[in-house]
Amino acid sequence: MQPPLISQRFRGFLPVVVDIETGGVKAATDAVLQIAAVMVHMDDQGRLYLGETHTHHVQPFEGANLDPKSLEFNGIDPDHPLRMAIPESEALPQIFKPIRENIRATGCSRAVLVGHNAWFDLGFLNAAVARCGIKRNPFHPFSCFDTATLSGLAFGQTVLARGVAAAGLDWDAREAHSAIYDAEKTAELFCAIVNRWDETLGRPGGA
User: Fold this and answer.
1) pLDDT tens-digit profile of 94-115?
2) Closest CA to 200 of 57, 41, 5, 47
3) Which helix (H) or strand (E) holds 72?
4) Which residues are catalytic?
5) Are 71 and 58 in contact (CB under 8 A)?
6) DSSP state, 60?
7) Would you say 145 and 15 are in contact if contact means Cβ atoms under 8 Å apart?
8) What is the pTM of this model?
9) How far apart are CA 70 and CA 25, in angstroms?
10) Is 75 left (phi over 0), alpha (psi -120 to 50) or beta?
11) Residue 180: other Cβ atoms inside 10 A
12) Which tens digits make up the pLDDT trace of 80-97?
């Protein structure tokens, strides 16, 4: 019986698209405020498509820095009573659980983070994992897929909104800088680029 196609496409890595909204740009000191993770699936024809989205608003960790410029940029009020934020130590395991389930279901070895300027999100994710003492992080600790780079290659555009537009996808500037919206649009862009590559040149390695 052949293993699922997606387990063959990325050397056993399962791509999971992540966007993290933060209280600054320094992973070690600045707060994680919202995290969204979008599952990526592959159909029987080998085309990628978006799966479910998992998200949480997150309480700033004790002593976390909150840069007013970052809060103005993402529009998040950390103290808003309707945010229903939970601690990092609760949010991360809840996000990781369905990722682990997808890894097992697809026969993959671990997840690989997909992000727009992925180094940023991976840095904040790794810092939060370390703060919480989580031992079973499903993500590869340093490998990632960056849609800014992929979009620059495919479309000559490195800004998310412009890459999405160049791929022929919809973009609503009013929704931007929400972790859910940005993660889902990044996932659409990633799937569009990979699908276009595979349709043009064929899936690598016979996947």
Assistant:
1) 999 999 999 999 999 999 999 9
2) 47
3) helix 68-74
4) 177
5) no
6) P
7) yes
8) 0.95
9) 8
10) left
11) 18
12) 989 999 999 999 999 999
